[in-house]
Amino acid sequence: KQEVTQIPAALSVPEGENLVLNCSFTDSAIYNLQWFRQDPGKGLTSLLLIQSSQREQTSGRLNASLDKSSGRSTLYIAASQPGDSATYLCAGSDTGTASKLTFGTGTRLQVTL
Amino acid sequence: DTAVSQTPKYLVTQMGNDKSIKCEQNLGHDTMYWYKQDSKKFLKIMFSYNNKELIINETVPNRFSPKSPDKAHLNLHINSLELGDSAVYFCASSQALGAREKLFFGSGTQLSVL
To answer: Is the confidence at residue A97, as pLDDT, over 60?
Structure first.
């Protein structure tokens, strides 16, 4: 059974700083890994999706990497802004149940002025 | 223009009642899902439907019955509500069933059972 862990649970950084959010998963037989953003009282927004055959994906200031052998994914946010403040969740899709995502508990990010 | 919309946004009810949450997507997607987010913010899949057919049922109690009248709708009916059902329920959709698909989420329905 896939388990997904995110550390740290919360993170506060000053504006402009580069930061890395970590995601670990137990089962390396993973089809894909997605990073989501959740704003308070709102749904999740998909940020990046990395296929099992890929090692990273980039979108603007965001870069996500996937290392299946070590069971890790990272989300790198460059030049953080207050608008980046949100909870970031990673989720893995397991082999055999392709559309069932197993979520981590998230990292709550606050970017301060 | 909301892609995945669910109603109501808030639902407060007494134990033992029956309630429904509606979900509609206008993205033309084939696959829809229900996820539950508990008080610890842990998100877990409940159901997924593909072209109106049930694909995943994650050992959810029989009191929960999803219904998909068409591809664009996946409603969730809950019988005999219990205190432990209090959570935020998210509807989501994807173009297809495969693992390559991005999920699009609704804004959630916060259910409080008193």
So the answer is: no
